[in-house]
Amino acid sequence: MSEQRRARPSPRAAAAASLLLGCSVGELDLSRKRCPCLDGWRCDDVTDTCLPATGDGSSRYAAEVLADEPLGYWRLGEPEGETIARAARGELDGECVGGFTFGVRGALAGDPDTAIDLRASAAAYIDVGNQFGFDQYVPYSVEAWVMPNVLDEEYRHVACKTRASVPGYEDGYELHAVEGAVAWQRLTQGTFSTGSSYAPALDIDAWSHVVGVFDGLVAQLYVNGAPQGAGPEATFPLVQTSAPFWWGACPDVGSFWDGRLDEVAIYGVALEPKRIEAHYLAGRGE
């Protein structure tokens, strides 16, 4: 009987697997599984790539995200009762604070990976620590799937890294929703002239894919794969702060998100429009 050979994945699948596992493509020996899967993932016997450990686990969305080499990527699919958001890319696990629930239905079509629900009334957020400063005019991107329970006159932060160098004058950047609008903002001593982009309000109790991009010159917000109004050219550099990076709230201010977050990521590059659309379509199963 001839030996049966294991099917080999495509180069793109191999690259995505290597990113997930923290090794280079050259180091990844798929036939020998020299790179083990992380906790919460299983090895697919056909492709020798990592899939979510539960259900049939389509990894298409995760592969799209990992192909763009995020600095940090948190799937937020931990089981109920967990208090740490494990990083699927990078080494920065997030500490979950306040009132939150893991294990709620996630955003992705055809993917059983779950999400986290954050309760503003219980001051919930995810603390990643003092990371992702992006000094001066360095490009970067912030991405999340969001489902708000509440949108009102309060700022509801999806992601935030700001700190007031002078009372009332914040430095940093933030992605937030408020009644009637979504905003992606860079701030230097409280002024938005470093670049801001706005979009119409999100839908309540429905998943939306939001991405804030700064390309070194202009801030651009994307909602469900589509570009929104671009901000003016940045006229001031971003100032380094000691603020931690939080998902779901803003340091020193609060302004807590109320609703679900899923598949959150941050990149040290300006994601291209075609890649943002690819992420969105993969999340929709299209």
State the gist of this model:
The protein is 11% helix and 35% strand. With 286 residues, it is mostly beta strands.
Descriptive notes:
- This protein has two domains: 11-53, no CATH class; 66-284, Jelly Rolls.
- 11% of the residues lie in helices and 35% in strands.
- It has helices at 11-21, 60-67, 273-284; strands at residues 41-43, 50-52, 72-74, 84-85, 87-89, 94-97, 100-104, 115-118, 125-129, 140-148, 156-166, 169-178, 181-187, 196-200, 208-214, 219-223, 226-227, 245-247, 259-267.
- The strands form three sheets. Strands 3, 5, 7, 8, 10, 15, 16, 17 and 19 form a nine-stranded antiparallel beta sheet that branches. Strands 4-6-9-18-11-12-13-14 form an eight-stranded antiparallel beta sheet, with no helix packed on it.
- Strand 11 (156-166) and strand 12 form a beta hairpin.
CATH architecture of the largest domain: Sandwich
- The CATH topology of the largest domain is given as Jelly Rolls
Q: Tally the beta strands.
A: 19
Largest sheet: 9 strands, antiparallel
Which structural class matches the secondary elements?
A: mainly beta
Q: What radius of gyration results from the CA coordinates?
A: 19 Å
The domain tally reads: 2
Elements, N to C (H/E) = HEEHEEEEEEEEEEEEEEEEEH
Oligomer state equals: single chain
